[in-house]
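Example record used in the benchmark description.
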Amino acid sequence: MPKEFSRSRRVGELLQRELAVLIPRELSDPRIGMVTVTEVTVSRDLTAATVYVTRLVGKGDEKELVTALNHAAGHLRHCLSGSVALRGIPSLRFKYDESVERGAALARKLEALDTPPDPDS
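Model output (structure tokens):
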């Protein structure tokens, strides 16, 4: 059992590295913009992968981003088949990763707590 988990994790890391390069190079959809792949989880049988993405800059409609990426999933899977040495390329499903934004908001709140009160007030 642990060997399967290890294999799926390694495949997820490989797909994350490859997709981080393929998405900006292969896709020209303006809805996608600049994104980063934060994590890829692969099922134990290596047939399905969930790809978590977030925007690098700016804000936009996350639903449009995910829709555009899911629409391009077949093309990205085809590109992966030429660059990754796997028997079968998992089907790709994209989800928006909100953890980066939540972490930044939490950091801002903590920073606001750390600032000393103004003695002139």
